Amino acid sequence: MTEARVLVVDDKENMRKLLAKILADGYAVETAEDGARALALVATRPYDVVVTDIKMPGADGFELLQAVKARAPETEVVLMTGYATVADAVRAMKEGAFDYLEKPFDPDAALAVVARAAEHKRLADAARSTAAPGEVASFHNLVGRSPRMHEVYALLDKAAGLDITVLLLGETGTGKELAARAIHYHSARRERRFVAVNCGALPGELVESELFGHARGAFTGAAGAKPGLFEEAAGGTIFLDEVGELPLAAQVKLNRALQEREIRRVGDTQPVKIDVRVIAATHRDLREEVRAGRFREDLFYRLHVFPVTLPPLRERAEDVPLLAAHFVEKHARAIRRDVTGFEPEALRRLAGYAWPGNVRELENAVERAVAVAPGPLVRVADLPPEVAAAVPGAPDPATLAKLPYREAVEQARDRISREYLVALLAEFGGNVTRAAERAGMERESLHRLLRKYGLRSDDFK
């Protein structure tokens, strides 16, 4: 087996030497004295694991983590700090770190963390290399293997290769920012900045200044010139989340920026050329907003070049077990809890809930469950009350009411069938033979049903 490649980054020479010695037996180790040198190495050669200090001059560990995940999302990152806090740990995990080490650390503990990270990377590489096209379970940080998500992955991959404006549509919590990052990090602009802007959170009187910058003296308090977020994203991507919340005056300027590829700072007379890809997102129906006079029609058509709709979780319920398992692993590592999965009934309740808040609500529910679970498996009692009270197999009435009768009946039947299979596999831990016996059918018949509903027995083991 080829030795895993590990990069150790720390501004203290004695720490670099210590870790290199600990990892010398079994790993190909290189070192870097700061974040800048580490970035240069990561840009030119592949690593399985990067172990980096948080507190460093110049680029700190969090900046390095973000850069590594931008260039090589599959590389695992372990953060080290002498000032560890729970907040640091949670932030590290949310931003994609595999784990963290508190200084001073036990050499055996450090070796064990790196070994787990390297093994996780090896297994992920093996899964990617052997998976059939229909078995793809993720795209960048989006997770799901349902037919709906495969369609989304194909569109995002195509969008990444085309340097055009993309409009991401879908309900709140469906993963629009993750989709935007996936496009950026798979595009030719991946080496430059990804700047995310929540348009709904910008103060109305400062929207134009934040997006396009301002000249000195443009308004009270403008003591100096300031570039806007479009200029900060030069050469990269700007993500305009909740673009439907922009005031009409800012919409005019955004439309001009898209049309002319230039912006003008507030209070300035000279335009500034920009080279930025725009990805916008909204949970609103922009066509309805145009009809209501709240959104400019010309801007709508400039944004609606390459639309991609992220499906709500209730329309890809077969992804719930996979997502739940992903979030258990993520949050158990973040808060260092020995929680590994779900009791069968808890998984059935997750599958039976309609998830109005979509993937974001599911993640929050799993994070809470991991925090309160007294043992290695999440119980029904550990779930939020509204999820624990879900009736497995019950179709979502609001969705069904919008469909023709025959289609509604078919969807209800499909959902009940899918959730029956989820409960069956959960009960027998993914053992298809025992599940088939309980269902009173041949193993091949059960396999055909699993394929039809996008389920894999391995997800329940």
TrEMBL record:
Residues 5-118 form the Response regulatory domain. The modification 4-aspartylphosphate is found at D53. Keywords: ATP-binding, DNA-binding, Nucleotide-binding, Phosphoprotein, Transcription, Transcription regulation. The keyword Phosphoprotein applies. It comes from the Bacteria. The keyword DNA-binding applies. Residues 142-371 form the Sigma-54 factor interaction domain. This is Acetoacetate metabolism regulatory protein AtoC. It comes from Anaeromyxobacter oryzae.
